[in-house]
Amino acid sequence: MSITNAVVEKKEAKMRSCLQPAPKVLVSCRGLDGENNALAVGYCGNCSYDPPMVMVGIVPTRYSYKMIKESGCFVVNLVEKSYKETFDYLGSHSKRDGDKLAAMNVKLQDGQKVNAPILLDCPVNIECTIVDSIVTGSHEMFIGKIECVRADARITDDKGNIDFSRLDFI
Question: Which whole number is the average pLDDT over 145-170?
């Protein structure tokens, strides 16, 4: 590796959410009373491959925060461009103000391994149980052990591999 003397101008950039692109995901959950909800989450990523785990960051003031904290599970739903209107609505409205899932006609199905719904119109659904969490400032990062991944048949081969190149993410 060589060091070049080329001059590249650098200037200070904003620190907030500087690691981009980040996946656009909807996290779905179910409260202990059976109430379902989903919210757009900006902080989400893999954090272990053995065992497979992901983490999601939720602001404690969000309506879904208590549901996730108490139930101990959540589902990460990957979102395609065709679902952008629903993604934007779920990310900008609170269930405190009305049933946003009904307002957008969100199709739900019970998770196979966790007591939380999957969003049927999302091509990949990652069911997780919470194994740990850490407060990192504005967010509590919930670490979820992946219990089950469900994906549309159109993007999955006979061995269960997902062809992410066939998805048109937001």
Answer: 95
